[in-house]
């Protein structure tokens, strides 16, 4: 499964303004290249050349940015490789704590995972992707490569479809105009009319099921997480192998547990 790359944090149809600071954007791109997917081969360690290639920056610019980040204690280096330091976790906590992502949320996800014996996640919509913000993985011989911060295509993920189905009509129209539907497997819905029909069905039933549309052999089910005012702000899913569970299992076994956990999460998360 290939992780989606960030679109710079801009929303559909957004344009750069005269206030855009290119130097800052370059620094952020350098930090973002140390993601799980990009740096996995070196276990989070990257050379100056690798950073320059991933960010499309010259060697000199990449070097200055890395040394600046090193001076600020966001990266460290042994002279050949660079890697992130624990200081970057402060940035993550700056997002997690205000919305209530903490021990309570983790405990609820862990409880869900123990009950259904499958991995469970919470994610939000950002551009054409969903971004995972909390995940509990079930230990198996072959586990997924999804971690907090992973980005996957919204259109063909169960979480993404739940979130897209919750958008106001005009906002959904803008999204579909900005992001073409991408064919991930032979089962992926890429026809816009059929996609809209699927979103309408999801909106009516309150959950989404993806059956091998994102990755062959994998199916998942997702439900929305809303505020006390009824606004959907995130979604939660559970995924499984087609060899372990049928679509009917997702509806009869997973769905009641997901709905119960989502209701508790809605009360505990400060959106």
TrEMBL record:
The keyword DNA-binding applies. InterPro entries: GAF-like_dom_sf, HTH_MetabolicPath_Reg, Tscrpt_reg_IclR_C, Tscrpt_reg_IclR_N, WH-like_DNA-bd_sf, WH_DNA-bd_sf. Keywords: DNA-binding, Transcription, Transcription regulation. One of its GO terms (biological process) is negative regulation of DNA-templated transcription. GO terms for molecular function: DNA binding; DNA-binding transcription factor activity. The keyword Cytoplasm does not apply. Residues 21-86 form the HTH iclR-type domain. It comes from the Bacteria. This is IclR family transcriptional regulator. It comes from Aquamicrobium defluvii.
């Amino acid at each position: 499964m290939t992780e989606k790359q960030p679109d710079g944090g801009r929303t559909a149809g957004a344009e750069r303004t005269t206030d855009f600071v290119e130097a800052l954007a370059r620094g952020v791109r350098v930090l973002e290249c140390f993601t799980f997917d990009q740096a996995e081969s070196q276990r989070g360690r990257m050379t100056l050349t690798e950073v320059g290639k991933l960010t499309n920056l010259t060697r000199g610019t990449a070097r200055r940015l890395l040394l600046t980040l090193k001076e600020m204690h966001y990266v460290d280096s042994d002279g050949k490789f660079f890697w992130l330091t624990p200081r970057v976790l402060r940035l993550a906590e700056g997002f997690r704590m205000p919305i209530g992502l903490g021990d309570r949320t983790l405990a609820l996800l862990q409880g869900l995972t123990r009950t259904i014996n499958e991995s469970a996640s919470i994610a939000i919509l950002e551009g054409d992707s969903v971004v995972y913000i909390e995940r509990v993985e079930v230990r198996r011989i072959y586990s997924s490569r999804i971690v907090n911060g992973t980005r996957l295509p919204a259109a063909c993920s169960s979480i993404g479809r739940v979130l897209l189905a919750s958008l106001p009509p005009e906002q959904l129209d803008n999204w579909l105009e900005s992001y073409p539907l991408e064919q991930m497997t032979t089962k992926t819905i890429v026809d816009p009319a059929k996609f809209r029909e699927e979103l309408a069905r999801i909106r009516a039933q309150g959950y989404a099921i993806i059956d091998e549309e994102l990755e062959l052999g994998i199916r998942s089910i997702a439900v929305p997480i809303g505020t006390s005012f009824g606004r959907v702000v995130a979604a939660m899913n559970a995924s499984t192998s087609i060899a372990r569970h049928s679509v009917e299992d997702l509806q009869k076994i997973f769905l009641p547990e997901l709905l119960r956990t989502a209701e508790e999460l809605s009360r505990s998360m400060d959106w």
